[in-house]
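**User:**
My hope is that you can spare some time for a protein that puzzles me. This is the protein in question:
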Amino acid sequence: MKKINQYTRYGTVALALFQAYGLAVSLRRAISPTIRPLFPRGLRDHSVGGTMFLMRLGEQITARGVGNGISLIISSASWRKSRPTRAVSLGSPARSARR
């Protein structure tokens, strides 16, 4: 089981590197080709670092018996993402009723 977890970590870091490279290339084309030369390196380092942090946090949540850590992180992120939309849609009828 430890070997599978190790391969999963390496695969996650490789995928994060690939995604960061693609994001840097597309942002460079969208913004400006004269963007600072260290921009792709900084974007890569922060993306991979954030991925590694979330992966470690998920492992710690799982190890402490709270639940499946990565699934909890993903579901809480999707809930936080949709929350402002739900708040606006819930607030719209109240605003129109006051007028």
